[in-house]
Amino acid sequence: MAKIDFITLGKIIFGEKEFASRDKYHLVSDEEKDSAFFKLNRKFAIKYLKQAQFFNNKNINKASAIDVWYQIFYTTKGTPDWWWKTKQTTTVKIKSNINANDLKIIKDYYNLKENDIDFLNKYFNEKLKEEIKRLKKFKKE
């Protein structure tokens, strides 16, 4: 069998259609398992973080760890949905109870960006209101 990369090894572990025969796993050498270990373990960490952290030890036998992952996913038919998904960060826009003109006053005065205003609004809302009130008073004088 040709040199196995981590994608092919993943397909063998999950029993993909072109690799449906689980007999191909025993043809994978320990050196190939060692070379694919870190990439595979990182991918498994998407769904099984604690187990992947357990295997993420410098003294671990990498080939045996891949064997354990193989046994875990032995009954899996095809690659799971989470395998190719990347970690997606969600940005939640904080609704401000301060009107836009007041926010513009403080943005202009301190040369702040929108992210800065969101941070202040989320964590220091009362102080932000006080500072806007102070700036408005200062502007009137």
In short:
The chain is mainly α. The chain has 7 helices and no strands.
Folded structure, characterized:
Helices cover 56% and strands 0% of the residues. It has two domains: 6-83, no CATH class; 100-140, no CATH class. The model has no long low-confidence stretch (mean pLDDT 82). It contains seven helices and no strands. By secondary structure, it is mostly helical.
Task: State the helical fraction.
Answer: 55-70%
Structural class: mainly alpha
DSSP strand content: under 5%
List segments where confidence is low: pLDDT < 50 over at least 5 consecutive residues.
none
Mean pLDDT: 82
Number of helices in the DSSP assignment = 7
What does the largest sheet look like?
Answer: none
User: What general outline do the C-alpha atoms trace?
Assistant: rod-shaped
Give Rg in angstroms.
Answer: 27 Å
- Count of beta strands: 0
The run of helices and strands is HHHHHHH
Quote the distance from N terminus to C terminus: 83 Å
What is the domain tally?
Answer: 2
Defining traits:
7 helices; 141 residues; rod-shaped; mainly alpha
Topology (elements, then pairings):
Layout: H1 6-14, H2 30-44, H3 49-55, H4 62-72, H5 100-110, H6 114-123, H7 125-140
